[in-house]
Amino acid sequence: MRYILSLFAILLLAGCVVTAPFDQRAYETAIDLKVDxxxxxxxxxxxxxxxxxxxxxxxLRIRKAHEYAKGLxxxxxxxxQWTLMADPDKNLMAGFIxxxxxxxxxxxxxxxxxxxxxxxxxxxxxxLEAAKLEx
Length: 135
Hints:
CATH class: Mainly Alpha
Number of strands: 0
CATH topology: Four Helix Bundle (Hemerythrin (Met), subunit A)
Helix content: over 70%
Number of helices: 6
């Protein structure tokens, strides 16, 4: 009987997932970056050289959000999402800015196609943080 109770306790504890507590700053930062990123994407039909400071500033803020997320305990899932967002070799915000810089100007169809994908990626980060309120 003691064995069964011990086994049950182990299984119960194994089912508990520990995540980082809700962080208001992380939540607000993700929302701000989403809005600013989508605005910058809309401006990418213009020459990159006209938006260098905005693009570099946004990338810096994304890197800061990524580093902040890495500093929170039990935050691996959110960190993984920020890692993708900040990677210039992926197809999220840093990758989009890299391609915009290389091409000089983006076509309207590219903007139309990428904008929902990046919005969805930010939503995933925002939802991960918001879900911590329910835990």
